[in-house]
Amino acid sequence: MIEARYEQIAEQIRDSIRNGARQVGQSLESEAALAAEYEVAPGTVREALRLLVSEGTLGGRRGARKTVLRKPRPAAVAEEFRSFAQWASAHGRTPGGHVIEQGWHIAGKENAAALNVDPRARVLRVLRVRLLDGEKVMVERTSYPEELGELVEKVPADAASVSGWLEQEHGIVFAGADHVFSATVCGQQDAALLEVSRGRPLLRHLRRSRDGAGSPLEISEDRYLANILSVAMSNGRNVNPISWLTADEQNWF
After folding, report:
1. In this structure, are 21 and 93 located in the same domain?
2. What's the whole-model pTM score?
3. Which one of 17, 40, 114, 151 is separated from 160 by 20 to 30 angstroms, measured CA to CA?
4. Is 74 within the bounds of a domain?
């Protein structure tokens, strides 16, 4: 899997902690020493360290050497929620789905900013119903920039994983994603697609996926039946991955 260089370095540091080469409580080498070790610019090392600090593996004041706070979680955890299919497979479930409709639209200001494209550019919008072990559990509304959308048009309608198909067929890797979760209720279209009553609670999931260089690949609004998915995370004095957003900020973060 292709990842940004700083992500590769972060994972190598995690591995060194997992295998005991670096111990909890031990200080890392200086940024300059790490840059020399990994043969990269100091700024690349700085990004890797920032990532490790944000997840709570490392701690320390800005400008000071970082200290190992805890052993990182298993590597698979970071993979789980890049896409619905990856999350389902990581939990031993069978993902599926089918396309209800898709078509080309003008991006507009909001989607253009989220996808880093011109507001007048075309985006492909796809409406899917997603399945878990054969049961309808989620409605997915996804927008793709033009170049990627032209490939997505060729994805089989019943493909379990669009991102998996794109990686296998075209080498396009969905390396990471940003997420916002909130509560909503089931409207008329979602109720019909999921075969449930209107007004039923749904978990709303805004997702922006990106490649290894950080470029947006898609934006999606996913609406899950509320009994299907819950979200858990940990935070503390040295790491706080939770960002509280207003309703307006959630629309495209």
Report:
1. no
2. 0.67
3. 114
4. no
With 0-12 / 13-18 / 19 or more C-beta atoms within 10 angstroms meaning exposed / middle / buried, residue 19 is exposed
Phi, psi of 38 (to 5 degrees): -95, 0
Is residue 230 exposed (0-12), middle (13-18) or buried (19+ Cβ within 10 Å)? exposed
Cβ atoms of 173 and 148 within 8 Å: the answer is: no
Residues 177, 81 contacting (CB under 8 angstroms): yes
Q: What is the CATH number of the domain that holds 35?
A: 1.10.10.10
Residue position matching structure tokens 């909001």: 110
Separation of alpha carbons 8 and 155, rounded Å: 29
The tens digit of pLDDT for each residue in 46-93 reads: 989 988 887 788 987 777 889 999 888 655 444 445 678 877 876 788
| 25 and 144, same domain (yes or no) | no
Helices and strands in the chain: count of H runs, count of E runs:
9, 8
Considering the domain architecture, whether residues 98 and 146 belong to the same structural domain is answered as: yes
Range of the domain at 98: 84-225
CB-CB contact of 108 with 119 (8 Å): yes
Tens-digit pLDDT profile for residues 91-115: 788 999 999 999 999 999 999 999 9
Task: Give 114-171 as a DSSP string.
Answer: HHTS-TTSEEEEEEEEEEETTEEEEEEEEEEEHHHHHHHTTS-TT-S-HHHHHHHHH-
Question: Within a domain: residue 247?
Answer: no
What's the domain count of the chain?
A: 2
Residues 103, 191 share a domain: yes
